Amino acid sequence: MLVLTRKRMEKLYIGGDICVTVVRLEGGQVRLGIEAPRDVPVVRAELRERDRAAAAAALAREAPAALEPAEADWPMRVAPPADRPRLGRDHQPCVTRSASLNR
């Protein structure tokens, strides 16, 4: 871990496109301003841990026991819930083998 000392309104850069500015110092708290591209998530650590725990709990509630697919079914994808279409990398709906056989 890199530890730096900064005064109020001093900045530090992470990479070429993220800037962190010390905006205010009060008692035991530091207020930071963060400038980052919209595609870079900036999340407080406690929220990140909460979201991970919630996602793990939801997965444990919803996921059925893992089953080994038969060798013939290996390339087949599992169909998404009917109310939420599965999207591929190009954000277009994926076609599953089971869906294409039912047409």
Kindly list the characteristics that best describe this protein.
19% strand; 2 helices; alpha+beta; 3 strands; elongated
What does this structure look like?
The structure is a single chain. By secondary structure, the protein is an alpha+beta fold. The protein contains two helices and three strands. A hairpin with a 2-residue loop joins strand 2 (18-26) and strand 3 (29-35). The radius of gyration is 23 Å and the shape is elongated.
In short:
By secondary structure, this protein is α+β, with helices and mostly antiparallel strands. The protein has helices spanning 45-62, 97-101; strands at residues 11-14, 18-26, 29-35. Helix content is 22%, strand content 19%.
| Pattern of helices and strands | EEEHH
Spatial strand arrangement across the major sheet: 1-2-3
Give the terminus-to-terminus CA distance: 56 Å
The main sheet comes to: 3 strands, antiparallel
Approximate helicity band: 10-25%
Topology:
Elements: E1 11-14, E2 18-26, E3 29-35, H1 45-62, H2 97-101
Antiparallel strand pairs: 1-2, 2-3
GO biological process, one term: regulation of carbohydrate metabolic process
Pfam families: CsrA (PF02599)
Keywords: Bacterial flagellum biogenesis, Cytoplasm, Repressor, RNA-binding, Translation regulation
